[in-house]
Amino acid sequence: HAADAHRTDLMTITRFVLNEKSKYPESRGDFTILLNHIVLGCKFVCSAVNKAGLAKLIGLAGETNVQKLDVLSNEVFVKALVSSGRTCILVSEEDEEATFVDPSKRGRYCVVFDPLDGSSNIDCGVSIGTIFGIYMIKDNHEPTLDDVLQPGKQMLAAGYCMYGSSCTLVLSTGEGVNAFTLDPSLGEFILTHPDIKIPKKGKIYSVNEGNAKNWDGPTAKYVEKCKFPKDGSSSKSLRYIGSMVADVHRTLLCGGIFLYPADKKSPSGKLRVLYEVFPMSFLMEQAGGQAFTGKQRALDLVPTKIHERSPIFLGSFDDVEDIKALYTAEGKKE
Ligand code: P6P
C-alpha cells in the first residue's frame, strides 16, 4: 500500500540532500559531509534542551560547574564543524571574533550560526532554535573576513532547527524549502514537510508591540493598518512568541509577516544580519515569500561587521509588499 511504502521509504535528510539536484554537483559530497556535521550538532542540542529542566543545564543561580546551554551548544557546533574538515571560517553569535580553522582541517565552506537563538526563553519552556547559513569561500586564497562579509544572496544554503514539542530542521539549498522531523527512535531527521510554500498573504502580524512608542512612521502606519484596516477587511491577529525561530516557523507554515523594525533605541534593529536575518530571509524567498530591511531586499545587504544588526520585515509576499510601499513612499518624501 502507498502508506506502507511511505513508511518504509524513509527519506532521511542525508538521502534527500544527496539526491537533490544541485548547482554544484562536484561538491555534493563535501556539502553532504558538512550538513551531516550540522545535523549531528542539532541532535546533541535537541537532547540537551530536552533534558535542560532536569539536568539544571540552564545554569541556575549558584550552579557554577554546569555550563549554560547556549555556551555548551556553541562548543558542540564549533567542534562538529571543525571536525567535518569542510570549513575554513566560522562566525557564531556566541564568539566575538570569527574562528579561522587550522589549515590542516580546512575546507571551502564558511558557516555563520546562532547555536541557540532565544536561549533566554529556555527556562520558561518556549521553543528555541539553532540558525545557520553557509557560504563558499570566495576563491582559494588564504581565508579572510571578506569570505563571510558577503551579501545573503551568495549563501549556498540556510536553515534552522527548532527545539520544541518536536525537533524540526528546516533547510534550503537553493532548490526550495523542506522540513525534516527528528525521529528519536531512529535518531534520523525524516522528511515531513516537502517543498514548503508560504501563503501569498497572511492573517497574522508578529511584532513586539511593547516597542510601539519607538517605531518610525512606516512601521507605525503598517501596524495601524493591521489593527484598523481601512478597506473593510478583517484585522490581522497578533502572534508574538519572542523567539525568532518559533515566530518565523509559524510565519513560514501559516503565512503572515514578522517584523523587527529599527526604533529610536536601536536604529539598526536588534536582529543580527549574518546568522538571523540572512538565513531566515533566504528561506522566505525560497518558499515564495520575501524579506525587506526597510531600505532594500534583505539578501542584497552587504555586511561590514560580523555581528552587524538590521531591521527586518519578512513573510508572505503580499504582506511584505504592503510595508515596502509605506517605506518607499516615506523615502520619496525625504
Ligand atoms: P524582543 C531572542 O532574544 C531574540 O534574539 C530573537 O530570537 C527574538 O526574535 C528577539 O530576540 C526578541 O526580541 O526585543 O522582542 O524581546
UniProtKB/TrEMBL annotation:
Which Pfam families does this entry report, sorted A to Z?
A: FBPase, FBPase_C
Q: Name one GO cellular component term.
A: cytosol
Signal sequence extent: none
- Taxonomic superkingdom: Eukaryota
Where, subcellularly, is it found?
A: Cytoplasm
Q: GO terms for biological process?
A: fructose 1,6-bisphosphate metabolic process; fructose 6-phosphate metabolic process; fructose metabolic process; gluconeogenesis; photosynthesis; sucrose biosynthetic process
Q: List residues of the Fructose-1-6-bisphosphatase class 1 C-terminal domain.
A: 198-327
Question: Which CDD domains is this protein grouped with?
Answer: FBPase
Broad class of where this protein is predominantly found: cytoplasm
Tell me which Gene3D superfamilies the record gives: 3.40.190.80, Fructose-1,6-Bisphosphatase, subunit A, domain 1 (3.30.540.10)
Q: Which reaction does it catalyse?
A: beta-D-fructose 1,6-bisphosphate + H2O = beta-D-fructose 6-phosphate + phosphate
Membrane-crossing residue ranges in chain numbering: none
* UniProt EC number: 3.1.3.11
Q: Which cofactor does it need?
A: Mg(2+)
What does the UniProt keyword field contain? Carbohydrate metabolism, Cytoplasm, Hydrolase, Magnesium, Metal-binding
Write out the GO MF terms.
fructose 1,6-bisphosphate 1-phosphatase activity; metal ion binding
Which InterPro entries does this UniProt record tie to the protein? FBPase_C_dom (IPR044015), FBPase_class-1 (IPR000146), FBPase_N (IPR033391), FBPtase (IPR028343), Fructose_bisphosphatase_AS (IPR020548)
Q: Which residues form the Fructose-1-6-bisphosphatase class I N-terminal domain?
A: 11-194
Q: Which NCBIfam families match?
A: PRK09293.1-1
Family note: Belongs to the FBPase class 1 family.
| Protein's UniProt name | Fructose-1,6-bisphosphatase, cytosolic
Organism name = Gossypium darwinii (Darwin's cotton)
